[in-house]
Amino acid sequence: MEPDVSIETGSMIRIAVLPVGGSIPHPRLRSYVEMLGRHTRIDLSSISSFYSEHQKSPFTHQPWETGSLRFKFMLGGAPPSAWEDFQSCRKILAVIGLCHCPASPDLDLVADQFATACKAYTSALAKRCFAFFPTDSQLEEGDNKRENILLFPPSDQKTQEFHMLTMMQDLAASLLMEFEKWVLRAESAGTILKTPLDSQSSLGSEEFIKAKKRRLARAQKTIGDYCMLAGSPIDANAHYSTAIELARLTGDIFWHAGAMEGSVCALLVDRMDHKDPLLEEEVKYRYYNVIQLYRRSYLQDNAQRVSTVSFELEAALKLARYLCRRELAKEVVDLLMSAADGAKSLIDASDRLILYVEIARLFGTLGYQRKAAFFSRQVAQLYLQQDNACAAMSAMQVLTMTSNAYHVQSRRNSQKMCPSPQELGASHADGGKMHPLSIVSLFESQWSTIQMVVLREILMSSVRAGDPLAAWSAAARLLRSFYPLITPAGQSGLASSLANSAERLPSGTRCADPALPFIRLHSFPLHSSQTDIIKRNPQKKEWWTGSAPSGPFIYTPFSKGVISDCNKQELTWIVGEPVQVLVELANPCSFDLMVESIYLSVHSGNFDAFPVSVSLPPNTSKVILLSGIPTKVGAVSIPGCIVHCFGVITEHLFRDVDNLLLGASQGLVLSDPFRCCGSTKPKNVSTPNISVVSPLPLLVSHVVGGNGSTILYEGEIRDIWTSLTNAGTVPIEQAHIALSGKNQDSVISIAHDVLLSSLPLKPGGEVTIPVTVKAWQLSLTDSEFDASKSSSGSARRISKEGSSPLLVIYYAGPWTSPDESNGSGNSVPPGRRLVVPLNVCVLRGLRFVRARLLSMEFPARVSEALPKQIYGENGITEELKSVNQNDSLVKIDPHRGSWGLRLLELELSNPTDVVFEVNVSMQLDSQQSEHGTANFSNEDTDFGYRKTRIDRDYSARVLIPMEHFKLPVLDASFFSKDAQINNLLGNKVSSTAERNAKAELNASINNLISKIKVKWHSGRNSSGELNIKDATQAALQASIMDILLPDPLTFGFRFGENGTASENTVSPEESSISDNPPGQPGSRNVGRAKGSVLAHEMTHMEVIIRNNTKERIKMSLNVSCRDVAGENCIEGNKATVLWAGTLSDISMEAPSLQDITHSFALYFLVPGEYTLLAAAVINDTTDVLRARAKSDSSDEPIFCRGSPFHVHVVGTA
């Protein structure tokens, strides 16, 4: 059999091309052959000048205008075929020698060599030797040389090609004339044509007689062959038709098939430019007959042990090549599979080799890659049966070509392992991950056995061929792709093959196919809180606002409100600062794996990677840290890692492992190497867009006194000193401090001015900033129990880790980069963010248990003067200021008067191991209002208790009088707020005014609570303040108006002077100035005790009524006296007290913010304890009075009652 056959092969003239003379350099020989190969077709119209007709041509229908001669150059020649008489196209009809004159100075020797080489081709009708680049001496002697040597003088390429065309036209004309001679001779004298089917008996035998009868048919068929070679298909068809008829008559089946095959060739060449279904059907019909005839001839002549099945198979291949297109795929497949079955009948292994090669080619042309790969493997098997290096090299090359179909190809031979985005119909935006369709095309588990076999065959052929790199590549692919199906011994054997192949390779050899380990991207660690990078906004004064973190995190605590596109993640690196990337390595095999070096693969040239060595035990995985330093500004791409393992350097791409894991998740891959090594399920990590910027400043922080946690009790206040150092090479010109994290309210103050005054902070500069922190209150959500118990045996509660506030320092260098001239001039260097955690560990301290509001009355005793008022026109009176502050709130003198007292009770407990001293203080305002009365302000007068000691595991209660918070004036504005609040609470009506009223009420409560300070000191020389806001606010919520606002009218009693019975209007000062007794010296009142009166004497008294509103009030006053039993002792038959003056229905009018008095006298008949009560009925009510009394009716009078005053009556001596 012959390779690359087709139906038109019968019209091709075979020419042997032989290099002669000295050794021709390979580039020269290749250029000569390429120049020759351009002339495979010579038009008949172009050879007329070289053609001379010596006698009438037998080719009567020669198409001189459209016909052509076809050449098939056989480089190196070809051995003669035993079937040359049967098919003339198998003959070598011309010989062309190629000579490189600089390598062959003696042309006589060249001529002799060429003549000797031509003797092997007895069928050659023309001989030419082309001598290129002859020297001047060779050109001068050229005329004396033999006519077969043709010199090609040195010239340009175009001239050389034109010269070659001329020589080939001359050769074509010579061959045409020789064909005419042969045909004329065959027609006149005849010829004996024999094939291996014919017997080699004597002339008198029966076979000779049979051959003589068949001679004419065979001669006609051979003449038809020469007509085809001469380019005259019409003449050839006429001779073929005659041969077919004669062969049918003589029963020469084999030549009958050959003649019919020639007729099909003549038909196609004659109608070369015409393609129509009728022609195709005709070709198919004739060729199927040809195949049947060849098969019959084989069965008939099988007894002669000469096989003609190769012609049957060639005919099937020719028809399959003619029909080879997708529309006729089924018919072509049938022909090829039938031919493959006939391979069993071929005796010669070379014929089977050619058959399998042709079948594989046709299946590949048809697009059936798997079938083509199967027959290619059959070719490789035939090569491997030969025990020589060349055959092994051929087998390796064939198997390498089949590796694409089996998806075990080397990465070197496949630059693109997945379909393009256009083929898949969409682009991939997931960081290089492949489409599922491409995963299916890459990994097919059902082919695993065949794939392993193919790789083993490639490995074996590579070892035989002596190609260590190909052997290493095959072993690496086999071990990496099919380790689950290979036994531990087999895995160790492959590892040995890798090591043995590496020993035969030069040091530093690189291979495109990675072996072990499997490497996947674990994560890109972000810049730490010490080196975080942010973008600068030159359009804002707050240049750091709106900045997002420099890493692939979708959310961080510092990017609140900033929307980040997770599909376009960005990472910024700085020139000269080390960076790190986490990768995970897996060794799923049963042997120890030693990785000599591994480092990041960066092709951009602006990154220096640091190699590390790793040892992986069997079936283990390990996460390692790979680092490097960016060297230049620009973009950085990290597709994978460079690994030096098994003596060869390979590149491991992250994308390949991602695709492998995706295939494993879809069941398309045998195993997940990381899961079988015990690794957890991988995260979806995509490679961000990495950019390198110019050097930036670097701020490093540490806490003065150590970076450990500062231990504080709840409410404790302390300064934390933080030192900041510029460890970079660029000065810091801008800086700003902000707070973040939890418990930000615990930071009382930050020394911003200290940092700003240190700018610009040069490299190596340092600044220390104090931060005042107040320990926060622990709750169940942000606290936990300490593992170490306290001395009391109970576990103490401490704050959780991460609950401390964070100092966020934004800083940046100059606005322009030092190398801005080399980069983009419009870019602004980024800034940085330093996060300094204030490591505060809060311990549970003094606890505030609860707060209660208590109400009580202390009856005052009637004396010569009323109690001094706290508020006067000049604010706090001098007497109150002179009183000892510790006594002013604790001790109450009943003779000075105190009524309607409200007390705030605070209950405190100490669950700690230390002793606390508590000091409760209260701030009173000294600022005056526009009406001359005092109100709250920031300039306060403090009144506090003595310190209260609270031992551990003990509690204490503190009472705080609230009378000092009462306002001196009853104003209408307070009642409008109160009414709004009540309306809000009762009707649930939501409006802006009501919300404002509620806010004002809360502000009043907060203002009141802020006046109460509960401070503590512990034995550890620490101090703090207890937070009582929430509990106190709840205690005061319902009674805030009663605490803050006075009654419209207040009443008081005092002893009057003798003879005084008139009603007077006095000022508040005059009503409380005199402390002298009402009687003159020597009166009867001298002997009584303080605050007491004598029975059976007329005692003069005054009732003082104060108007606390800004309006005049008309009232009806009543005074009553009761005994210890609560009975009225003035009225009735059993009255024990006589009176002088008016005690009931007294009409009076009190000016605004002033006092009025009413005098009367009492005569006590019985000693004892008596109580005086004053009450008034206000008829003409106003909105203020109704609001204070919480009355809705305008006609209903308002009743005001004063506090009781006690009178002690003693008997006479």
TrEMBL record:
UniProt signal peptide: none
Domain of life: Eukaryota
InterPro entries: Ig_TRAPPC9_Trs120_1st, Ig_TRAPPC9_Trs120_3rd, Ig_TRAPPC9_Trs120_4th, TPR_TRAPPC9_Trs120, Trs120_TRAPPC9, Trs120_TRAPPC9_N
Residue ranges of domain Trs120/TRAPPC9 N-terminal in the record: 9-197, 206-268
Keywords of this entry: Golgi apparatus
Domain Trs120/TRAPPC9 third Ig-like: 882-1044
Domain Trs120/TRAPPC9 TPR region span(s) in chain numbering: 331-499
Residue ranges constituting the Trs120/TRAPPC9 fourth Ig-like domain according to the UniProt record: 1078-1209
Listed Polar residues bias regions: 1060-1077
Ranges for region Disordered: 1060-1087
Location relative to the cell: Golgi apparatus
CC terms in the record's Gene Ontology section: trans-Golgi network
Main location: Golgi
Domain Trs120/TRAPPC9 first Ig-like, first and last residues per copy: 546-647
PANTHER family tied to this protein: TRAFFICKING PROTEIN PARTICLE COMPLEX SUBUNIT 9
Protein name: Trafficking protein particle complex subunit 11 domain-containing protein
Source lineage: Eukaryota, Viridiplantae, Streptophyta, Embryophyta, Tracheophyta
